[in-house]
Amino acid sequence: MKIAILGSGGREHALTFSISKSNIVEKIYCIPGNAGTSELAENISLDTNNFKTVYEFLKNNNVDLVIIGPEDPLVNGIVDYLEKLNIKVFGPNKIASQLEGSKIFTKKLCKKYKIPTAEFGIFENVDDSNRYIDNAKHPLVIKADNLAAGKGVYICRDKKESYTAVKEIFDGKFGVAKNILFEEFLEGEEMSYFIVSDGKTFKYFGSAQDHKRVGEGDEGKNTGGMGAYSPSRLFNKELEQKIKDRIIKPTLKGINDLGTKYKGFLYAGLMIVGNEPYLIEYNVRMGDPECQTILPTLETDIIQIFQSCINEKLNEIEIKWINKKSLCVVLCSNGYPDKYKKNIIINNLEQLNLGENNYLFHAGTKKQDNKIYAVGGRVLNFISISKTYSEAKKNIYKNLEKLNWKDGFFRKDIGYKVIDK
Ligand code: AMP
Ligand code: GLY
């Protein structure tokens, strides 16, 4: 089979790696990919939001199946566009992708299907919002409705911060704002829960906890993710049953009731309070870096999973996992998540001998004249799978020391909640 993957991050390199292990795959294209994917696939430099040129490439190269990595093209309807032109594609369609594309869509669905989530209110202008803030309990969570690449969420400690958030959102900081979402602040521990669905049934696809803040001890600015571990330390059978029954099943029913189906990965961002799950947000794709963390423990041929989803036969396969702990540490460019330099050479990469059960997935890198350059904020993902988190952690930090990249930094405390000091 010929496979194409859309995207260029660590998630897409991890997907490329898993796909490359399948016996039935003869060729992989990455659109546009990164230096890491170019070792396993042919990188094709195209704009993933230009659906017409993507279609023409897939058609002209007889691609059998395309996997969509990031949320932007999904929310913009690439699946509907390609399916209409008879291209086989793995990912949710435009209606289903509103689960990530519109926070208000998801909140309304939660209300209708009684899915546990933070109490919320929706306002359409600054005056109504401010009137609400005048008497609101703080901390208060304020969110822009649209896709904001992980930004657009304010945890406001007092009224002053809340008025500022409202102003910034209605001033268009995250795109045109027709309305705004207020949420009760939930106090608990976050966990990511993943499933894969064919529209009729769904299956577990891993759990994880990530570290979103840039600084050690989970302090400082929000980032795309500085590291993760899988499985989540909160995970247990009783909790999983609640997540499936109260959150996943009613959500998929809600999508069915709209006259369509949810096909693809679904990522539930949860707040666990006691052993009770609350939905914070949905993402209609795998997480990054959760995907890099989870996929090395997947035993089943990933192409078999994609095909059974497309053919609506997911119930006929078993998804098998390696029973190990996985940890991922992200190496970033100095300055990230603020300004950082681009086109900085990364020496020593070729000489890096990772060792068994260790993986390196690229994110913001490019290859030029046989040299590797950092071109993004998050640059490389180091993963290790092992019997224990502490063993995995040791292996990763050994490899990061070996690489010794002076232009980057990484958090030294990834997984601190699951690793004894
Ligand atoms: P979101 O983009 O909706 O996932 O929000 C980003 C982050 O803000 C989440 O990962 C949580 O850490 C935090 N957050 C969002 N909503 C809430 C809430 N209602 N209560 C507490 N924390 C929240
Ligand atoms: N790691 C968070 C995300 O992928 O959205």
Structure in words:
The chain is α+β, with helices and mostly antiparallel strands and 421 residues long. It folds into 4 domains: 2-94, Rossmann fold; 119-184, 2-Layer Sandwich (Dna Ligase, domain 1), CATH 3.30.1490.20; 189-316, 2-Layer Sandwich (D-amino Acid Aminotransferase, Chain A, domain 1); 325-409, Glycinamide Ribonucleotide Synthetase, Chain A, domain 4, CATH 3.90.600.10. 28% of the residues lie in helices and 29% in strands. Strands 10, 11, 14, 15, 16, 17, 19, 22 and 23 form a 9-stranded antiparallel beta sheet that branches. A hairpin with a 2-residue loop joins strand 15 and strand 16. The mean pLDDT is 95.
Ordered list of secondary-structure elements with their pairings:
Layout: E1 2-7, H1 10-20, E2 27-32, E3 42-43, H2 51-60, E4 65-68, H3 71-75, H4 78-84, E5 89-90, H5 98-101, H6 103-112, E6 120-123, H7 126-134, E7 140-144, E8 153-156, H8 159-170, E9 180-184, E10 189-198, E11 202-210, E12 213-215, E13 219-222, E14 227-230, H9 237-257, E15 263-273, E16 276-283, H10 290-294, H11 302-310, E17 325-333, E18 344-345, E19 358-362, E20 365-368, E21 371-374, E22 378-386, H12 389-403, E23 408-409
The structure holds adenosine monophosphate and glycine.
Helix content: 25-40%
What shape does the CA trace take? globular
Distance between the termini: 47 Å
Named once each, the bound ligands are: adenosine monophosphate, glycine
The CATH class of the largest domain turns out to be: Alpha Beta
The percent range for strand residues is 25-35%
